Amino acid sequence: MIRSRSLRRDTTGVTIVEFAIVAPVLLALIFGILDLGHGLYMRSVLQGAVQDAGRDAGLESGQAAQADIDASVKASVQAVMPFIPDEDIAIERSNYQAFSDVGTPEDFDDTNGNDTYDAGECFTDQNGNAQWDSDVGAAGLGGADDIVHYQVTVTYDRIFPLWSMIGLPQQDTAQATTVMRNQPFGVQEGRTSVRVCP
């Protein structure tokens, strides 16, 4: 009887039991905050690198320096996440004649009235690739005074394996975009639209 009373009053080791209950939640919270902070920092660096790349690409020398500009963006991303291979950093450029053209689909004859382009419907090819596109932009940097949509997408594994433990994907994607006008280093070239009826 005396022994059971002394065991009930004995508080040695209580701290370790309490810590065992609190530790998983505390560690998950700390790792989650660190991972979120790192992801936000990476997105911020990526956006800054894309803004710089857009400004550099808009110069007359931008056409010849595309590879160097891309390498600079990749180097900025890999400085934050050195384990990301080059193939996981996708860079896309498209050029337009005016800001209002960005994200605009090519015109087409909606013969069946479903508000979507269907194979066989006539369309106006505005970017010269002989097929209907949901965006009138032509590939590349364009020329003087053209509008350039510059987009970089980075796919990466999160630093901590925390997300896979709670059923979320371990892989994340960061994307940065800028839309800028090229310097007026020459006269903007007109674009020819061709009517195509397959």
Which characteristics define this entry?
19% strand; two-stranded antiparallel ribbon; 4 helices; 198 residues; elongated; 4-stranded antiparallel sheet; alpha+beta
Please outline what is shown here:
With 198 residues, the chain is α+β, with helices and mostly antiparallel strands. 36% of the residues lie in helices and 19% in strands.
Can you lay out the helices and strands and say which pair or pack?
Layout: H1 2-9, H2 14-57, H3 66-80, E1 89-96, E2 123-125, E3 138-139, E4 147-157, H4 162-165, E5 171-181, E6 194-196
Antiparallel strand pairs: 1-3, 1-4, 2-6, 4-5
Helix pairs in contact: 2-3
Structural features, described:
By secondary structure, the chain is of the alpha+beta class. It has one domain (2-196). The chain contains four helices and six strands; from the N terminus they run αααββββαββ. Strands 3-1-4-5 form a four-stranded antiparallel beta sheet, covered by helices on one side. A two-stranded antiparallel ribbon has the order 2-6. It is elongated and about 95 Å long. The model has no long low-confidence stretch (mean pLDDT 87).
